[in-house]
Structures are given as C-alpha cells and as structure tokens.
Write a structure and sequence with these properties.
Blueprint (H helix, E strand, L loop, with lengths): L5 H14 L20 E7 L2 H14 L3 H17 L3 E6 L10 E6 L6 H17 L2 H10 L4 H4 L2 E5 L4 H6 L4 E8 L2 E9 L5 H20 L13 H11 L12 H11 L4 E4 L4 E3 H18 L5 E5 L4 H12 L3 E5 L5 H10 L5 E3 L34 E7 L7 E6 H14 L7 E5 L5 H11 L4 E4 L2 H4 L2 H10 L4 E4 L1 H8 L9 E5 L5 H9 L3 E6 L9 E4 L10 E2 L4 E5 L12 E6 L6 E2 L3 H7 E4 L2 E12 L5 E6 L3 E4 L2 E4 H9 L4 E12 L2 E10 L5 H9 L10 E4 L13 H13 L8 H14 L17 H12 L7 H5 L3 H7 L7 H14 L1 H27 L12 E5 L4 H11 L5 E6 L4 H16 L5 H4 L2 E5 L11 H10 L2 E4 L10 H19 L6 E7 L12 E4 L13 H14 L6 E7 L2 E2 L15 H12 L1 E3 L9 E2 H12 L7 E5 L7 H8 ...
Parallel strand pairs: 4-5, 7-15, 9-10, 9-11, 14-15, 14-16, 16-17, 17-18, 30-31, 32-33, 32-35, 33-34, 35-36, 36-38, 37-44, 38-42, 39-41, 40-43
Antiparallel strand pairs: 1-6, 2-3, 5-6, 7-8, 12-13, 13-23, 18-19, 19-20, 21-22, 22-25, 24-25, 25-26, 27-28, 29-30
C-alpha cells in the first residue's frame, strides 16, 4: 500500500481523470440505448499450450509478471480496436486487501515493440498502486462519476472467486487464471453492448495477437495483424466486388449511339419546357461538337454553366464527342466561386445561356447557331484514358478542388448501373439531383445508354413537391433519383404506384422513406461513393426492418477498412474506409500534393483514402459512421469544414475559428462556427459575408463567440469540449434566479433567444445574443425598469444586469407618460424656457459671428511627400483615399486590419469597388501601399522594422479610424478611439516631424452639463465637463483631449464631422447601413406611416463626398495648425420639408407632434406587428433632459469659402438619390 502523502495521491487521481476522463473501449456492436440492463454473460476458453509455452518463456527470461503481460496484450488489442491515443484498463493491485480497482493509462506509439509496451504497463501499474486505490475510489465518488465511464475494460489475474470477479463487472472483463500448466481466460461481457459472436472473435484475435507478438519480438507491435486467420479470410471476402456485369468494355458514347439507332424517335431527355428524341439529341450535340472542334480545338476543359435543362445535356454530350472534358458549374454558386473554378480548371470557353452571362461577364460572349454545323460527328482520336470531366468539390484550402475522372471509369460505372437496375426503353427516370454533382451524371447517362427517358428539373423546381408529384404521375416516372431529404417530401404524397425504384445518395434515408417505400412496393437503394471514386462504390437495398447501411462493393471495387496504422480492422470495429479499383479518379486537377495525400499505394494497388469512418457488419455490409476529418454530408451535400474555416479566418474581425458539425439525431445535423474576436461581431453580418463565398448548404447555422478556443493538453483543439458548449446550456448546473427582477429578465431572455435553459450567469452574447436581440431585450426590460442598451454589453449576464437596476426608477412606459405629462402641464414654462435659451444663445452667437469676420489666415498649401491614412477602409476613409489618390502626393500608406498585407489590400480594393463601382486605377495604385496593422496595439501592430521605417518617412497622418457604433462593449470603443489615438500621437512624435489630422464628431459637445441649460458649441470649445452616456461620443471626446495634451510638441488639426450622410451624387451610403441610427429611424417612421415634428432641431445632412473634399482643402493649409474645425453642413432642412420630399415615394406618410409619437409608443408597445419598428425608435429615443446644444460652424465655413468650397443645399434630387439607393438594397420598402 502507498505511504505517499494523501494530497499527492488525490492530486494524482484528480489530474489523471481531468486529463483523460473518457476511457478507451472495445467498440460496441449493439445499440444499448433504452434496452435496460440485460446483465453479463461469460465465454470460457483455455489458451493453447503452444501459446502458454511462449508466454512462460518470455516472462521467465525477462522477469515479467504475467498480470503485466496480459494487461499489456489487452491494451495492445484495445489500441487496434479503438484507435485512441491513450488506452486504459482497470486492474486490481497485487497487495490491495480491499481489492479496489485502479485505472492504468498508457500511450502506445508506432515505434514501440512488445517489450516497450510491457515496460510502460509495468511502470503505470506500479505508480498507480503507489497512489493508493482508496484515493482513486474517493476521487471518483467526489466527482460523482459513474465508474463505467472511466473503466470500460478490466483485466483481472488469478482471482478465482466469481463473487469477487462479478463485483467488478464492466463492459468487458478479461479474467486470467492459472491452473497448473494451463491458463484459462474467462471473458465477461455486457450483453447490452456486445454479441456473443463479437466476443468469440475478440478471443480468437487475442490469442492470435499473443502468438504473433511472441513469434517476432523485433516487429513493431502496432504493425502486427491482430486478426485471426478465420476473420482475415472473412474480411477479404467482404472487401471485393459482390456484383458483376457483362459488357465491361462497353463505352458510354458507343452505347448512346446504339440507342440512337435502335430508338431514334423515343424521348431521350425532357425538362419542364422542352424535350428531345434520341435522334434530335444526337444531332444537336454533334453540331455543337463540330463548333467546339472548329472554334476551340485547343481547349482541354470546357465549362457548362446552366441549370438542369435539355441544353445542359446537349452541351455535355457535345463536349464528350469533341474529346474534351466537361466541367459542370452550379448556377447558384457565388461569383467568386465560379471565377475560382474557371481559373483553376484552365477554362477559356464556358457554354451557358444568355440570362447567365452575368456570371461569366469577363469572358468574351459568342452566340452559337447550331444549324450552321454538320449534324453527324464522331471523334476518331478519342482515347478511353482521356479525362471525361472535372467535378469541383469543397476544398480544404478554402478553394474548391477539381476531381479528374476518365472516360473509362465513367463508362464502366454507367454500364454497371444500367445492367444492375435493368434499365430499358420502358423506363423513365426523374433526376432531382443538382447537376454540378457526379450523382447527376450517374442517373443521366444510365438512362441515355439504355433507351429510357430522363426527366430533368431545375433547382427551383426541386423545392416544389406538388409540381414533382404531378410530374411523376404525368410522365409515368418509374425510377426516382435524389437526396433523402427531398425524396422524403415526395414519397409521402405518391398517389399511384407508378415509381418502381428509388435511388438515394449523399446521406441516409429516414425511417419514413423506408416505411413508405415498403408499403408501396417500391425498391429503395442507397448508393455510396465519393466523387473521387466515380459516382458510386457500394450499393444497398433496404428492406422494412433493415439497418441504415451503405452496402457492399460494386464492380471493379475493393474496399478496406483500416486503423490509423493501416492495419485491417476486425469486423464490427470502426476504421477509415479506403477504396481501390479501375474506376478511381486520376486525382485532383493540378494538385499533385493533394493527390498524393489522398490516393495511396497499398499492397501495390492504388487506393483512395476517403476520410469516412466505417465498419463491416457481420453479414458483410458496410455501416458508415461519419467523417474522420472535416468533411461531412448534410442533406446530401458534401461539406468541407476547412473551407468554411479558411474563409471565416479571412474576416478581418475574427482571430481564430473552429467549425464543427453538431449531430442532434441521425437526420438532423447543424454546422456551428466557434470563433474568437476582440470585437462583438453581428451574426447577420457573418452570414452576409459568407454568402459571397459559400453555397447555402455550407452556411453555419450558429455562430458562437468564445474568449478562447479550448485546447487539449496536447495543444490540439478540444472538439469534445466544443460539442459540449452547446449542450452545456442544457446539462450544466444552472444558477436559478433568486430575485423578482431576475425572474422577469430571465423570462424576456427566454422569449427573444428562444432558449429555455438559461442560467443567470450565462453571457448574453455566448448563448445566441446579437446586436438586434440586444436592442429587443433591452427595450423589453426597459418597459418596467430604467436600463439602457449598453447594459447588455457592459454587464452581459442576468445576475449583473439585475444588480444595476434600481426598482424605484420607472421603466419606459412610465417615463413616456411622465414626458407626456410634462408636455401638457408645463407647456407655458417650456415656451418661456425656450425663449430665454434662444435669447442667450443668440447673444453669444452674435459675438461669435463678429469674431469670424476678423479671421485673416494665409491660405497657402503645404506639399506632403508621404501621407499615412488610418481608417481608409471605412465610409469616410474610402472617400478620403479616393481624393488623396488624385492629389499630387508621391506616396500614400494605409494601415488596415488584415491577416497579412495582401488580405489588407484586398479589403481596401473591395471597399473601393463597392463605393465607386470601379477598381482603383492601375496608375494610381502604384503610389498606394497597404499594410496589415492595428492602431490599438503597440507600434500600431507593425513590426519594429516597419514602424521605424514609416516613422522616418511619413510627414502627415490622417486619422479617420474609429469604432463607430451606437452600442457595444466599452473596451472596444476605448481600445480604438482612445488607446489607438495615444498610439498614433506617439508615432507622430517619433522620427520625422508629422502633421496629425484627427477626425472627430460634432457630437462631443452634447451631453449633460450640471447647471447649464443651453450651450453654443463652437470650434474653440472642447472640455466643458459634459457627461456623455454614449460610448462612441465619450471616447471621441477623450481622444481629442489626448491630442490637445501634446499641443506644445504636435502639429495637428481636429476636424469634427456633422451627421455624415450619403454621397450627394449617387445616394450611396455606408455598407453597414443597419448600424446607422438615423437610417433605422427613417425606416421605422416610413413603415409606421408618420414622422414627428421637432421644434428644437432641423435635420443635418453632411454629405460624405463633400466632407472628404472639405478635409482635403483644410489639411493641406500650412498655417491652419493646432486648430479645431466643424465640418458640418449648415444648410439644414426642417422635418416638414423632409416629409414633403418623402411623400413623393410614400404619399400616405403623416406629420405628427412629438407628444403624439409618445402616445403611439405607449399604446402600441405590446403589439408584435409594430414592435420591430418601435424597438428601433426606443433604441435612439432620449427622454432624459440634457443641456440644449447648438453647434455652429461659421468659422470653418468662412475658411472653406475662402478656399472656394461651399456646402450644397438639400433638395428633392438628393433625397431622391437617398431613397432610390435604400430601395435598391431593400433597406426601405
């Protein structure tokens, strides 16, 4: 027994169970859920005498304990069965009087010999015994752990009492007992989890493993085949083709032409608008083939960008006849993806239809008149080994990868399918498969080579189950081919027993499909096969009660299921599925590295490494268990997780990403993206971003922001923990609300997050909250309690938010009512106050105007050599960049957030094209440098070398970088707006003398100043002790103070911008329009059909293009240093005038008084149909009395006027531009 310190022992077992909580196990071969405990059975066997002699020889010569030896063999066998890094076994220590269990974990490496494994096991057993089994039991009890979770396999030696043995029964118990010169093995097993045949094979494999290990001690243990000869032969029999066929050398095009001769007038292909006979299809495809050879003889690969129509089939056949490879391209792919495929496949000709031209607009467009070409074509130079097609699938690099398949492989597959399904001219097939997937061509060519007809449906038609059922009845469809999710929607509504056969692929069928097919006498087949293996590799026919399997290998197919060491897995043991045969693809187009990684040579044969986990069932079928790597099938689509991750990693706000597939049930899977970011990222914006690059079926269903991605002790991403994050909401010990306020807030969170398992300590943004929901939830809470939206960002949990609430402070309804009461009862006082305010301000304003007339400043320009623009990717920043590019400035540098310099440059180019509808001109691009950096970080996020270089070369900085939002986490505002400004000032004072142009906002003059009712905010005022709740405004004021603090050492201008609005010429507004309060309010008013009047304020429109122009004029002036300017369009318009312009588009919109607005909100706040727009109004409605601020810009306007600049008037045309743009992007109705 152990004499070690108790704390050491407890810490040892705690650490062991924390590091490797889940134990390895021999894989179950029975579904034990909901079966109840059926107990254990035992199979007895006596080890062969020759094996016992070998064991005795080894243990005697090396002084090995037999218990250690047997435990080591069990661990080795378990390693082969489970493929776990760490394998575990339970033991009973030699000297433990209490006969408690201990767990021993060892890591078996590929380089280990048997002796190494025995030494590891010996060391682990000794250490475990030293740490005392009593403490192991104590830790298990304290952690409330079910022992079966951490001890699945137990090894017992020389304990003959069955009473004691049964005390320790687990999933599998190896019990070894010596009887004289014999050794007996009793193997107890859980009948819930294992069958007797599985256990008998396990015993045979155990004995075989002992023999092979001891017969060659110089062989690496993991290279030893653990299968008995009987099971080896069984697996070999399972691995080879179970389906033969006759015409193995028949070629696809020859078979088609044979059908043209036999059935020239039969319908070959049909879509919803057109149909062609075999003869007509042959004629048109031959004419197009002539065109291809005459006009594009040098083309190797030809793209086909069409929906599933008759024209698509003509094109594909023509390309094949011309001896070229066709490349199908999905019409719904994002343009970026289409361009990548065209570029990667070396495509210079794409066959498409006129309405699809926008997807290939960079190519020359040529219309084809087929009648000009010969209608009889045969390619005499055709080679069976030529590439027939390239199919592009999801790629791990973020780009799709092209799989190259030969005519021979395609022909063999098609001929086999035709014979297997016994297709004839009496059959008609309906294809409900997208034509960019290889499964489509399996159904298409099998029909066209058998004389049957094939019916095509477009992607949009696939969703119309009523249309499909009518089509099945009308066209007497006998064979239906599609994905399980679509077939399930169709099969339930079959009116007649017309369909004889249904073939599914891409995913498993539901029990509904199996049941409905059986009830209707329909044969249901499942085809499995990666694109790399030419359409299909296995097939399975379902019966009423059959398991969901992928079946057995088809013609010319050999399948192996191997573990990580490429040893053959026993029957019922999972491993990776490898496929061989003459129908394998050549590999990946122009990617030899990826080809060599996935197409391997095993036993002198070429195998494709599928990445699919599978196992052999006892009857020789294959059960698919999921993906070993990151590829998955969802609703029949192949999804590459790495591609999603790589594209998300390109997002400038995201630091790291891990995407997983969450499987809720056999037929319900969801893509979940976990990410880390220094900023809150709106989920809707992530979706919008991904939609530009990914198909819809690859779009994550959830985005979850984490502080950090969890890692295992080995430094790998802990996917198990990520999977449990989503479950943890349900399974964790929730902290329940303990106050009335918490209960009320919890009810609101549950409603808006649609989640009924929330703890009061849950972070709002980690359980599904986003900026929109934050507004909705804050408004809902504020109906009763006085909180602002920033509470959601600052405090984040129900517990912390509730602690900030003062229940005596009224909610929004009461505050609205109080405001109304003030308006009614204090009208005369308010008017008197307003008179005094205006009088005081007018007197001060008169003095200010007089001082403006005396300004006399020489307006001489200073020429800068190298300008640094910060924030050049933002709304104002991109307009500044456009102006700077046209200035006589030799060098312009931008610092932009990005993964690298190229990524940063791409972001700028993308923004420039968005705002100006053109690329940056090449001649101007030459003087532009874009580098990846971050102003909130030390040295602006630059390397030391770059920082020093730019410190010595830049002579002017324009800082338009800012974190501009109305709500959010304070640290995000502070990091960019304050820390960022401090870093910029530090940079400006380092090296070469630099002028700093700092962009701020006129809103810094707003807020509450104690004892001050009104304020004239001029360019000369800054810190007035104003209290500001808005994080953006508060941090911008702080940034101004940072600059002014260095006024003795720094040349600067502070340019405060007014209400920045759309481009006065185009009406285009910021890309993230949803973040703008003014626009959201206008949208709300339009949808509610009214606009409130304001007697205090007019509307300010500071047009972005004019603001940028004004900045260009001011920053170049040599003598306008250490000044503050207000770039604020003084030509404001009243609400009534704005309403007049809006009525051109929205004639029913009314003008209401401010008090009527408050009455409307009180009356309708509980009405769901109007709540969305009321939430927008409440988010920006300020009911608290503030110091009335009148911002003026006469001084700035005077100087701008001297420079020849004048702000434009707001007129009908400009409002028309604004509305038209908003309608175009569907922001306004």
């Amino acid at each position: 027994m152990s004499t070690l310190n108790e704390t050491i022992c407890r810490n040892y077992w705690n650490a062991k169970l924390d590091e490797h909580f889940y134990t390895s196990k021999f894989p179950y071969n029975q579904n034990f859920f909901d079966k109840g405990d059926k107990g254990h059975l035992c199979i007895n066997t006596r080890l062969p005498k020759d094996v016992v002699l070998l064991i005795n020889k080894l243990t005697n010569e090396n002084s090995y304990n037999k218990y250690v030896f047997f435990s080591s063999i069990v661990q080795l066998l378990q390693k082969n069965y489970s493929d776990e890094e760490i394998v575990s076994v339970g033991i009973i220590p030699f000297f433990d009087k209490n006969q408690n269990l201990l767990r021993c974990d060892i890591d078996i490496k590929g380089s280990d010999f048997l002796k190494d494994i025995i030494e590891k096991m010996k060391k682990e057993m000794v250490q475990s015994e030293e740490m005392n089994s009593n403490f192991f039991e104590e830790v298990i009890e304290n952690k409330n752990i079910n022992k079966s979770e951490i001890l699945s396999t137990i090894c017992i030696y020389n304990i003959k009492s069955e009473i004691i043995v049964k005390k320790f029964l687990s999933d599998i118990n190896f019990v070894f007992n010596e009887h004289g010169s014999n050794i007996d093995l009793k193997l107890f097993y859980s009948t819930n989890k294992y069958t007797s045949s599985y256990i008998k094979e396990l015993i045979d494999n155990f004995i075989c493993t002992v023999k092979r290990c001891l017969s060659d001690l110089r062989k690496n243990a993991l290279n030893i085949n653990v299968l008995s000869e009987t099971q080896q032969k069984k697996v070999e029999r399972f691995s080879t083709s179970h389906y033969d066929f006759n015409n193995q050398n028949e070629l696809l095009l020859d078979s088609f032409e044979e059908q043209v001769k036999i059935n020239p007038n039969n319908i070959a292909v049909m879509d919803s608008l057109n149909s062609l006979t075999y003869k007509k299809l042959d004629t048109k495809s031959s004419q197009l083939a002539h065109y291809i050879v005459e006009k594009h003889s040098n083309a190797s690969n030809i793209g086909v960008l069409m929906d599933s129509t008759v024209n698509f089939v003509i094109s594909v056949l023509a390309i094949m006849k011309a001896g070229k490879a066709f490349v199908p391209i999905n019409i719904n792919y994002p343009k970026v993806r289409v361009k990548k495929i065209i570029f990667d496949a070396d495509i210079n000709i794409v066959i498409t239809e006129s309405f699809q031209e926008c997807n290939v607009k960079n190519l020359n467009i040529e219309e084809i008149n087929l009648d000009e070409y010969n209608n009889d074509y045969k390619n005499e130079n055709f080679k069976n080994q030529d590439i027939a097609y390239l199919i592009y699938t999801s790629g791990t690099t973020g780009s799709p990868k092209g799989v190259a398949v030969s005519y021979k492989a395609l022909s063999k597959t098609i001929v086999w399918r035709k014979e297997f399904y016994n297709l004839t001219k009496k059959n008609s097939t309906l294809l409900t498969v997208i034509n960019s997937f290889d499964a489509f061509f399996g159904g298409l060519f099998s029909s066209l080579t058998s004389g049957s007809s094939v019916h095509l449906v477009k992607e949009c038609e696939m969703k119309d189950t009523q249309f499909l059922n009518k089509l099945i009845t009308k066209q007497q469809i006998t064979h239906l081919y599609g994905t399980p999710s679509l077939i399930e929607e169709i099969v339930k509504y079959f009116k007649k027993n017309i369909v004889k056969t249904i073939t599914i692929g891409g995913d498993y069928p539901t029990k509904t499909i199996i049941r409905e097919c059986k009830n209707r006498g329909i044969e249901l087949y499942n085809e499995y096969g990666p694109t790399e293996c030419t359409i299909l590799s296995t097939i399975y026919k379902f019966s009423r009660n059959s398991s969901i399997l992928i079946g057995k290998p088809i013609c010319d197919t050999e399948i192996l299921i191997l573990n990580n060491n490429q040893n053959i897995c026993p029957v019922n043991v999972p491993g990776e599925l490898y496929i061989s045969g003459e129908r394998l693809a050549y590999g990946y187009w122009k990617d030899q590295t990826l080809t060599s990684q996935n197409f391997l040579s095993l036993n002198s044969k070429k195998f494709f490494k599928t990445g699919d986990l599978a196992k052999w069932t006892s009857d020789g079928n294959i059960k698919l268990l999921g993906r070993k790597d990151s590829q998955h099938k969802i609703n029949g689509y192949r999804v590459e997780i790495d591609e999603i991750e790589n594209i998300l990693n390109e997002h400038y706000l995201i630091n790291s990403v891990k995407v997983i597939i969450k499987e809720y049930s056999a037929n319900k899977k969801q893509i979940i993206a976990f990410y880390t970011s220094d900023f809150f990222v709106d989920n809707n914006k992530l979706v919008s971003y991904l939609e530009k690059y990914l198909p819809k079926y690859m779009m994550p269903g959830k985005f979850i922001r984490l502080k950090e991605i969890p890692l295992t002790n080995a430094g790998k991403i802990d996917e198990k923990q990520l999977l449990n994050i989503n479950l943890s909401i349900k399974n964790q010990r929730k902290k329940a609300p303990y106050t009335v306020i918490q209960k009320e807030i919890l009810a609101i969170w549950m409603k808006y997050l649609d989640n009924y398992n929330i703890s009061i300590t849950d972070d709002f943004f980690e359980i599904g909250g986003d900026s929109l929901k934050a507004i909705q939830v804050a408004n809902a809470i504020s109906e009763k309690y006085d909180i602002s939206i920033n509470y959601m960002y600052k405090y984040r949990t129900i517990e912390k938010i509730s602690a900030q609430i003062n229940p005596t402070h009224p909610g929004i309804k009461k505050r609205l009512s109080n405001k109304l009461e003030d308006l009614f009862q204090g009208f005369e006082n308010l008017e008197a106050d307003k008179f005094l305010i205006e009088k005081n301000l007018n007197e001060e304003y008169r003095e200010y105007k007089n001082s403006v007339q005396n300004i006399k400043t020489p307006l001489i320009n200073k020429n800068f050599e190298h300008i640094l623009l910060l924030g050049g990717n933002g709304f104002l920043g991109i307009y500044l960049l456009n102006n700077l590019l046209n200035l006589n400035v030799p060098s312009i540098t931008l610092i932009i957030r990005g993964k690298n310099n190229q990524h940063a440059l791409n972001r700028v180019k993308k923004s420039y094209k968005f705002y100006f509808n053109r690329e940056i001109p090449e001649n101007l691009l030459a003087k532009l440098t874009v580098i990846s950096g971050d102003i909130s970080k030390e040295k602006l996020g630059l390397s030391k070398k770059d920082y020093m270089y730019y410190s010595q070369s830049i002579d002017c900085i324009i800082n338009s970088a800012a974190f501009v939002k109305h709500f959010g986490e304070y640290k995000n505002f502070y990091n960019i707006n304050v820390i960022g400004t401090k870093n910029i000032v530090r940079f400006a004072l380092n090296g070469l003398s630099k002028k700093l142009i700092h962009i701020s906002t006129t809103s810094v003059g707003e807020g509450v100043i104690e004892g001050v009712n009104s304020l004239l905010f001029t360019e000369d005022k800054m810190d007035l002790n104003q209290s500001i709740d808005d994080y953006y405004i508060a941090t911008k004021l702080e940034s101004e103070k940072v600059i002014v603090k260095e006024k003795d050492r720094l040349d600067y201008q502070i340019l405060r911008i007014g209400n920045l609005m759309f481009d006065s010429n185009s009406g285009k507004f910021q890309e993230n329009i949803e973040d703008n309060a003014f626009y959201r309010n206008i949208r709300a008013y339009i949808n509610l059909n009214f606009i409130p009047k304001s007697s205090e304020r007019n509307l300010n429109f500071t047009f972005v293009n004019e603001a940028a122009e004004a900045i260009m004029l001011l920053f170049q002036k040599r003598y306008l240093n250490k000044k503050v300017f207000h770039l604020y369009n003084p030509n404001e318009i009243s609400f009534d005038k704005f309403l007049q312009y809006l009525r051109i588009y929205y004639p029913d919109i009314q003008s209401i008084q401010y008090k009527e607005l408050l009455e409307f909100i009180i009356k309708n706040i509980d009405k769901s149909e109007k709540r969305h727009y009321i939430d927008d109004l409440l988010a920006y409605l300020d009911l608290d009395r503030k110091t009335f601020t009148k911002t003026v810009s006469d001084k700035t306007c005077h100087i701008l006027s001297e420079c020849g600049f004048k702000w434009s008037m707001i007129d009908n045309k400009k409002i028309e531009n604004m509305v038209e743009y908003c309608k175009k992007i569907e922001f306004l109705p």
